[in-house]
Design a protein that fits this description.
The chain is mainly beta. 12% of the residues lie in helices and 46% in strands.
């Protein structure tokens, strides 16, 4: 429905205006030619300027709410909107230049009345516009339009304002608030000779209209979608967006200058009735009133002590209101009234419970500027005409409980007649101004301007308003540490006086006081070897601080600093603080001295040795001598090696130093070389200190032997694989060569019922050893072992030592039990070994030839020699061997 209404109204507007695409266009200017200086923006509702006037944001000095009041949520939106623009690089200062001439209301009042048309809130109409929903086509009355003009006229009267961007004649999509603001803005622009720009398109779908000849237009860019959508989101989040959410204006669109320097072109564009300029402003910033229905509202105040001043120029003398403090326009609650009677007398009124009225004795004239002022302090009411106190009456405190006080100019209040003429220079103060100050406002008083330079005061100071013929005295006082240098009145020197009086004043005056620091002398003297900065006789102001720097020359240091003949130590700077007397400072210097520490390690000397003191810039040389059989190993200067030098010199000494010498014994080279087939360790060159020894280990490889050892080209004999040099005092060489060892074979011969380990034929090197173990088959024992056909007995193991020829090895094995005794014959005892295939316990019995048992033992371990000492007589015996009672072997023996 809203879109249909917008489009229908646009068609109607275009038909009425006769504007078609076939008509000629007006005069186009470039948007960049519109300056920011003097440009303001006036919108109806809070989001209107974003939707319809966004291209002008960057060139507007003020953003003014023309129809609607602000609410807490709108103030939040403006704050968030400014933060958004700051964060995203939009150089637009909106919040600081946002003006709301209508008094704020609550969010609920705004929602329920302006969005809901709730009649319970009709009380808002006392000082706010009637509600109009977007689909309510009822025009606002002249009374409502005058409300808008009363809020906005102060901005149009401002001489710095040149142009305004606002709503267009058809209210964009036909909103009656938009149309009313457009009318008010156009009428005020005509009245004060200003320009008005408006959007030149239907705006529901942003289709540009044709502009007829005689009208200027431009193109403004809506190509900032991120700015538009970002701020729209802020409105939406705060529940205050009132247009489409699916449309984003874009592209370049026309803006029409509908009023140009007070000339309204609405009749050319669409045949609208227009107004024409009336009288021009008779003073810069003056408000113009037609005497019919013009009035203007300013922010008022509630102060019990007050002064109100203004200049008025009536077009005629008649009963008519000039101004009043009121709760709202046409309110019955008002006071601090100013109005004119038919005799040209000015009447002032306050209400302190009853009306208190002061009527001037002076009369004012038509077409002449007159300064009027009233003041009240809760005790009396004063009325001034042209800076002169005209009337004083007793009066209590004026009304101080206005909820939103407004100072209303020109509206019929007490006389029933609107003011006709001009009002200028309206001022309101929260105090009672003096007679001289009011005379000054009127231009009939004088100003005495007093000022004091650094170091003192003049009282009173600043710009002081005084009356003609009056007197005023000034007191001049220097600060501590200062004296008066000069006092000048009207640029004429009066000398170092402490007071001055202007008498019978008949013009403006000036008085200035200058002061001079009280100064003291500080004498700064430096001895040879340095300086004090600053030096000489130094002037210092009273109470000031002065820093002196003590600087020794190159090669010198501070010895002492005397301040007023008292030592301050060897300080590098000194500050005289809060100087109130003369002072002296002197400095003494001494040459710098440095130490060089020289140290020699074991094995030599350095000369000079120990700690040597030098003056700054001197040289010092050192000689380094190693002891017998020692060499210089390294010289360390300030922890840095300079090599194995025997002398060193420090040149131009400017700091402490150190020199350390390290010696090492004289060394010799012992060269060790080995031939093929072995090694000598350590091999190669060995560095050996004088008198020390060096040992070598000679190791032949497998299959080799040491052939000979040659020391210093002479063969030597060694009994082991070691050789050592003792007490070395010269270089040496040692050479070892090796020879291959001969190989021999050990062959395995006859074996039966057993084996040998290692098995098979074996090849061995000359001089090596080889061990064999004989292993009987189960149930057998070693019986006989033959080495190279030589019987070696029933041994279980045999070793060939230091082999030097081939060998053979054979063995026999037996399953029988064979006792062996040794010695046989025996005297005291004998060793018995029962050789058996098994490790068992056997029983033995010694019997005589007559078969008599003379000795018996049942626990004889086989294969283990046992020494027995049987107590038997000399003779022949038989040892029978039993296993489990069965005789298994025997042997004969003889005891001697």
């Amino acid at each position: 429905m809203r879109s249909l209404l917008v489009n229908s109204m646009l068609v109607l507007i275009l038909l009425i205006s006769g504007v078609t695409s076939a008509e000629a266009q007006g005069t186009r200017v470039d948007f960049s030619t519109i300056p920011k200086s003097g440009t303001i923006l006036i919108y109806s509702h809070m989001d209107d300027d974003l939707i319809w006037m966004l291209p002008f944001w960057r060139i507007s000095e003020k953003f003014i709410g023309g129809a609607m009041p602000a609410t807490p949520s709108f103030r939040t939106i403006v704050s968030q909107q400014q933060s958004f623009m700051n964060s995203n690089g939009y150089n637009i200062e909106y919040q600081a230049n946002w003006y709301t001439p209508w008094d704020d209301i609550s969010d609920k009042e705004y929602t329920d009345y302006y969005w809901g048309a709730n009649t319970s809130y009709n009380y808002l109409l006392n000082d706010h516009l009637e509600t109009r929903l977007y689909n309510n086509a009822t025009e606002l009355s002249r009374y409502e339009i005058n409300k808008i003009k009363a809020k906005l006229e102060q901005y149009f009267a401002d001489p710095s304002m040149r142009r305004v961007i606002s709503h267009n004649n058809w209210g964009e999509y036909g909103h009656q608030h938009h149309i009313a603001v457009n009318k008010a803005v156009r009428e005020l622009a005509v009245k004060y000779r200003k320009d008005v720009w408006m959007l030149g398109c239907d705006n529901g779908s942003f289709v540009d209209v044709n502009v007829p000849n005689g009208i200027t237009y431009t193109y403004g860019s809506f190509n900032t979608p991120s700015l538009y959508t970002g701020i729209r989101t802020i409105y939406t989040n705060n529940g205050r967006w009132s247009w489409y959410t699916d449309r984003v204006p874009s592209g370049d669109h026309k803006f029409i200058r509908i009023v140009e320097a007070g000339n309204d072109k609405s009749n050319i564009l669409k045949g609208d009735p227009i107004t024409y300029p009336g009288p021009a402003q008779q003073a810069s910033g003056a408000y113009i009133f037609d005497g019919d229905d013009d009035y203007l509202t300013l922010k008022g105040n509630n102060n019990s002590s007050f002064t109100i001043s203004m200049r008025v120029m009536p077009d005629q003398i008649r009963d008519m209101d000039i101004a009043a403090m009121s709760e709202y326009p046409a309110s019955g609650k008002n006071d601090r009234n100013l109005y004119l009677n038919s005799e040209g007398r000015v009447i002032a009124r306050v209400y302190d419970g009853s009306s208190k009225i002061a009527t001037s004795s002076a009369r004012i004239s038509a077409a002449t500027w007159t300064q009027i002022a009233i003041s009240g302090n809760g005790s009396n009411l004063k009325l001034y005409i042209n800076g002169t106190l005209d009337r004083t009456i007793a009066a209590g405190t004026a009304i101080t409980n206005y909820s939103t006080p407004e100072f209303i100019l020109g509206q019929a209040t007490l006389t029933g007649t609107y003011f006709k003429g001009q009002i200028n220079d309206v001022r309101m103060y929260n105090r009672v101004l003096t007679d001289s100050e009011i005379a000054q406002l009127s231009g009939k008083g004088y100003t005495v301007t007093s000022s004091a330079g650094t170091g003192g005061t003049i009282t009173p100071s600043g710009s002081i308003a005084v009356s003609a013929g009056s007197s005023i005295s000034f007191s001049i006082r220097p600060n501590s540490g200062y004296r008066i240098a000069d006092v000048r009145t009207d640029n004429t020197s009066r000398g170092a006086i402490t007071s001055y009086e202007f008498r019978d004043i008949s013009g403006d005056h000036t008085i200035t006081a200058s002061f001079q620091r009280i100064a003291f002398t500080i004498s700064a003297v430096a001895g040879s070897g340095g300086k004090i900065e600053p030096g000489g006789k130094i002037s210092a102001d009273y109470g000031s601080n002065r820093l002196f720097a003590v600087k020794p020359d190159k090669g010198y240091m501070i010895s002492d600093v005397l301040v007023d003949n008292v030592s301050a130590g060897h300080v590098s700077e000194y500050v005289f603080e809060n100087i109130t007397a003369d002072h002296s400072i002197s400095a003494a210097f001494i040459p710098l001295r440095f130490n060089i520490e020289s140290i020699a390690g074991q094995g030599g000397t350095i000369n000079p040795s120990g700690m040597t003191g030098l003056q700054y810039g001197n040289n010092q040389s050192y000689s380094i001598t190693p002891a017998k059989n020692y060499l210089v190993e390294d010289v360390i200067v300030d922890n840095v090696s300079v090599g194995a030098v025997t002398s060193y010199s420090f040149r131009n000494v400017t700091s402490d130093h150190s020199i350390f010498v390290r010696f090492r014994p004289t060394t010799f080279i012992v060269k060790a070389i080995s031939g093929e087939g072995g090694s000598i360790s350590p091999e190669g060159d060995s560095r050996v200190e004088y008198g020390k020894g060096q040992s070598y280990t000679i190791v032949p490889e497998y299959g080799y032997r040491i052939n000979n050892v040659i020391v210093d080209f002479n063969p030597v004999s060694i009994t082991s694989n070691e050789f050592s040099f003792r007490n070395i005092t010269d270089n040496h060489t040692i050479f070892v060569n090796f020879a291959k060892l001969n190989k021999y074979s050990i062959n395995i011969g006859y074996l039966r019922n057993g084996s040998v380990s290692p098995s098979g034929d074996t090849t061995v090197f000359e001089g090596t050893d080889q061990t064999y173990k004989f292993i009987p088959a189960p149930g057998y024992r070693v019986s006989m072992v033959f080495i190279d056909t030589m019987l070696v007995g029933p041994v279980n193991e045999y070793t060939f030592s230091s082999i030097s020829s081939d060998h053979t090895i054979s063995a026999t094995f037996s399953s029988s039990v064979q006792p062996e005794i040794y010695p046989n014959p025996f005297k005291q005892g004998f060793s018995l070994n029962i050789r058996s295939p098994y490790d068992l316990l056997y029983e033995i019995k010694i019997i005589t030839l007559g078969n008599k048992v003379v000795y018996q033992n049942s626990e004889i371990q086989s294969n283990t020699p046992v020494y027995l000492t049987p107590a038997i007589s000399r003779g022949f015996y038989i040892i029978n061997v039993y296993l489990k009672g069965k005789k298994v072997a025997f042997v004969r023996m003889v005891k001697n």
